[in-house]
Amino acid sequence: MLVAMFGKRCEVAVHDFSSLKNSLVYIAGNLTGRQIGSPITDLVLNELAKKKDKVDDIPNYRTQTKKGAILKSSTIFLRDGENHVVGALCINYDISLFMQFGGEIEDFISIHSGETKEENFYSSVQDVIHGMVEQVLNGFKKSPSIMQLEEKVECVRQLEEKGAFLIKGATDYVANVLGVSKFTVYNYLQKIRTESEFQKQ
């Protein structure tokens, strides 16, 4: 059923632990080159060496065949009514092709500087202004109504650095949020820009 569902890259094996040297009693698919009567694997043996109540299923581990194929594997232990481990269901899936594609995809999506930059995508210019103002105000952790003069100037400075005032209508919006007139915002901007020019000299 599983092999029929997942195709030729899948292999399903069932082991009967009554005879470990030829425990493989069922196999569908041909990834590992085994056949009925093949012995148990060393990984499963290592798990069976534990006390019976310590034997755990082994999900999602990576293995490699003699031919070099990379497999994603899981082993589920089968128990009888007395909780004795009597066998195992092993599922192997060949992920070699995905590993190859994964490397190519990783190369494609890698960023030159290794740095992730924040970018928000808005549906209107009003949302752009609102988003920029909200982002700056969040840094002050207080309502604009209780901000000191210096804090309001700093708020405008940060918005200027972000390019907020390149957007038409931003001055009116910022003035309304800060509880000042738009002329006051213009004065803040003039002071900020003058200081900036002076520092460049």
UniProtKB/TrEMBL annotation:
Domain called YheO-like: residue spans: 1-101
Domain Transcriptional regulator DauR-like HTH: 129-189
Stated name of the protein: Transcriptional regulator
Source species of the chain: Bacillus infantis
InterPro entries, alphabetized: DauR-like (IPR039446), DauR-like_HTH (IPR039445), YheO (IPR013559)
